[in-house]
Amino acid sequence: MGWWPFSSSEQDGPKKTTGGAFEQPSRSNRAKCYEARDAFFECLDRSNILDSINTKDGRAAAKKACSAEDVVFEKDCAHSWVEYFKKQRVVNYQKEQTIKKIESEGGEIFAPQLPTRASK
Amino acid sequence: MAQSCNCIRGAAKALGPTSALRSELNLLRVPARRTIATINPPHLTSTPRIAPNSLSNPCLQSARTLVQDGWSLRSLRNVGGQTRAFTESASRHKLKTMQQIKARNRGGPFSLTGAVLFVATGGCLYAYFTYERARMTRKRIAEQTKGIGKPKVGGPFDLIDQNGARFTNQDMAGKYALVYFGFTHCPDICPDELDKMALMYDKVKERCGETILPIMITCDPARDKPAVLKEYLKEFHPEFIGLTGEYENIKQTCKEYRVYFSTPPNVKPGQDYLVDHSIYFYLMDPEGDFVEAIGRNFTADEAAKVISDHIEDWDGPLNKKDRWA
């Protein structure tokens, strides 16, 4: 992200408010956060951990296996984003499993439509 | 007698390009005339059976081959002027050579030109009806929300744009508007959708000109002040319009657009929170009526096509000038 003017703050992570939110949720800050998130999730995958937030066991396991990545994740992302992404990981996995289950039973999945698009 | 002679000459003429055969006929013309005359003059032009197999005269042989051909028989009759074949048509006399005749008759009533015309007409009709059906479907969708007793999406609002200027629903009049609700602290979906909106906007503009306003209305007025929106939106598209306002104004606007959102009304400065909200693009027509909602399942290309088709259907006044000019 060398062309971006905010890269001076790269060492300390993006500027945040006292509450832990981004001051500027700019494209470069988002990219940095996604990078940290992906690194953390890769670590979870290696350790075979799905849920790092909802259960006590999960939190403990994630802390034991991936605490370094978690620190960077928290540093580069707004705290609300960290929670969001950790929960999203579980939801996405469940969604995938459900879709697989439906498809293995021969069902079809349609994207939800507003009632105004009566026919397509 | 003279008739018979003409017949043979006509037959020779009909053979046209086969010059060898023609010269043969020329040589044999006189004996041929005599032979025919001696056999059965009154019936010559009325029956093909005038040339039995036993005839050895080569001219008669060739005359017989002509006579065996149905057309030739009719031609002979016509030249004689005695009878009139019931299948006769004027155009056939324009056919001069045997090749032409055979080519004309090989396929019966079907010809290449006819086939091409048939397929072309069918294709045109199919394309036209497909187009009309798609247009009627769009018209039905567009008019579903017009008139009385229909669900009303959208309505009057009074907000502030990213430059701090007042922006109301009146500023949308005369142009289509693509309205998206979001907030700048959105983790992943809104940025993706705004990137898509930039693509959609450029594609629609390319096809329909300056006929659409890309508008993002924040659901998080506590944090999204005009300056924040300006900084945020210019990363997506320089022409995006960002609207914010007082919490009550935003709440009222969201209510009119039937948008669900969950911003806490009283937030402390610096508080970290997310806003849950509906993620549809709302297409509004130049009269401020809702046309169609575009969800996440649409790609930028699909969405741009849907929007452009609606814009091209519009036959009311459309302000094509740039709003800021």
Automatic annotation (TrEMBL), chain A:
Record has Coiled coil as a keyword: no
Pfam families: COX6B (PF02297)
Superkingdom of this protein's organism: Eukaryota
Database matches in Gene3D superfamilies: Cytochrome c oxidase, subunit VIb
Main localisation: cytoplasm
One GO BP: mitochondrial respiratory chain complex IV assembly
Renumbered residue ranges of the record's region Disordered: 1-27
Database matches in InterPro entries: COA6_fun (IPR048281), COX6B-like (IPR048280), CX6/COA6-like_sf (IPR036549)
Location in or out of the cell: Cytoplasm; Mitochondrion intermembrane space; Nucleus
Keyword terms, alphabetized: Cytoplasm, Disulfide bond, Mitochondrion, Nucleus
Example of a GO cellular component annotation carried by this entry: nucleus
The family this protein is said to belong to: Belongs to the cytochrome c oxidase subunit 6B family.
PANTHER family to which the protein is assigned, alphabetical: CYTOCHROME C OXIDASE ASSEMBLY FACTOR 6 (PTHR47677)
Protein name, UniProt field: Uncharacterized protein
UniProtKB/TrEMBL annotation, chain B:
Transmembrane segments: 110-131
InterPro entries found in the cross-reference section: SCO1/SenC (IPR003782), Thioredoxin-like_sf (IPR036249)
Protein name, per record: SCO1 protein
Keywords: Copper, Disulfide bond, Membrane, Metal-binding, Transmembrane, Transmembrane helix
Residues given in the record as Cu cation binding sites: 186, 190, 277
Molecular function (Gene Ontology), one example: copper ion binding
A GO CC term attached to the entry: mitochondrion
GO terms classed as biological process: cell redox homeostasis; mitochondrial respiratory chain complex IV assembly
Disulfide bonds: 186-190
Entry similarity comment: Belongs to the SCO1/2 family.
UniProt-listed Gene3D superfamilies: Glutaredoxin
Native source organism of the sequence: Polyplosphaeria fusca
Pfam families documented for this protein: SCO1-SenC
